[in-house]
Amino acid sequence: MSIEENMGKNEFELSLSLLREWEGLDRVRYELSSKKETWRNVIDGTLPVHAMEWGDYREFRARVVAGVKGVLAAEARYGVRLHRIICHEFEYCRRLTMPMDLMLKALSVVLAGYFSQQIADLLLALLVSHDLLKTLCGC
What we know:
Layout: H1 3-7, H2 11-21, H3 26-33, H4 37-44, H5 54-74, H6 76-89, H7 100-112, H8 117-129, H9 132-137
Helix pairs in contact: 2-5, 2-8, 7-8
């Protein structure tokens, strides 16, 4: 999916996509998959999210978002790496005057040097859609 398509997703959808695709979330994927069979099936993609019962969906959604955020925040190798790449190498704060579409494309290229293009676009969409870049870089 392109950055633009990912930008249309909500936080849960972005987190679930990252959970499915990114090997950095293997531990979270395993923990959630082992909780309930429906959760494992949704993570594997064999069961659509809308087929879940409402209470089960709400708990699953909360745990997916918390798990992804937890890994990004707690595991220094990702948090520090993203901070270094975006804030120092790309110099995000200095480029705030760039048009957003150009900045997204440039950041996507930079992140793709460290992650697969799909993971780079998902991470970027999650960070941008929740205005976390300014917080991350202290702009």
